[in-house]
Request: fold
Amino acid sequence: MALEGGRAVYVQKAGSDLRTFQVETQARVEFRDITGVIQKAVAESGVQSGVCHVFTPHTSAAVLIQENDDPALQKDLDNFLRQLAPRDRDYCHNDGNCDAHLKAAVIGCSKTLLIEGGRLLLGRWQGVFLCEFDGPRRRELRVKIVSD
Reply:
């Protein structure tokens, strides 16, 4: 399984399945819908009931569960986070990307999703997003699926 030019690595143990994906982001700020990739990993794992942990090991990227129906919400999220952590503020951590670290800290680098019937238990309008705040970059996404 791969993500747009990326590669995937699989590690399976009894009752769990760990997959690592490479995601190429295209902009400094990007909300990449990764719901389909995660659902495919769940389906391929064969787990019918359990949990799916989604994690990105980066300090300027995050994982978000949010509405995935209207792309205007992504612009609103970007504007909201810019107000919380403007790029041009005088920060103590002054390497030019402190705003990205702060935005990622607010959203968080991981989420846990429930699995029932071999599918993610998401709300009707929910999707899972990899949030890029300091791109474009190659980001890693780790997905661990654990059976009940």
